[in-house]
C-alpha cells in the first residue's frame, strides 16, 4: 500500500515536470483557491531555479506581528539536490519559536541571503 502511494506520488511529480514544478503547482493552487500563501522563485541566466521561498498565511501573520527577533537556521546537503533549506524563525510573545518562512537555495552566499530577505 505504501509502495503504491509512493509510486503514485512519484508519477504525479514527474507529470508536473519534477519536484520544483510540483511544489509551485501546489502553492499556486492554494493561492488560486483564495488562500494567502506566498512564494517567489529565483532563476539563473539559464532559467534554472536557484531559489524558492515560501510562507503560509499563518506564517505571514506571525512575521507581521513578531518581526523584531529573527533567527535564520540553515541545513546543508539534506536533500537530493544538495540545496540548503533556509528556515526563518521568530520568537512570539510567549517566548516560543515559530517558523516564519522556508527557502531552498542553490548557494549560501550573501547574494542568496539578500534575495531571501527582500
Features of the shown structure:
118 residues; alpha+beta
Can you lay out the helices and strands and say which pair or pack?
Blueprint: H1 2-15, H2 19-32, E1 38-43, E2 49-55, H3 57-65, E3 70-75, E4 85-91, E5 97-105, H4 110-117
Antiparallel strand pairs: 1-2, 2-5, 3-4, 4-5
What does it look like?
The protein has a five-stranded antiparallel beta sheet with strand order 1-2-5-4-3, with helices on both faces. Helix content is 38%, strand content 30%. The radius of gyration is 16 Å and the shape is globular. It is an alpha+beta fold.
Q: How many strands in all? A: 5
Q: How large is the count of helical segments?
A: 4
CA gyration radius, whole angstroms? 16 Å
Largest sheet: 5 strands, antiparallel
**Oligomeric state of the chains present here:** single chain
Strands of the largest sheet, in order across it? 1-2-5-4-3
Q: Identify the overall geometry.
A: globular
Please indicate the percent range of residues in DSSP E strands (runs of 2 or more).
25-35%
**Distance N terminus to C terminus?**
43 Å
Task: List unreliable stretches of 5+ residues.
Answer: none
The average pLDDT value, as a whole number, equals 81
Q: How would you summarize this macromolecular structure in one to three sentences?
A:
The chain has 118 residues and is an alpha+beta fold.
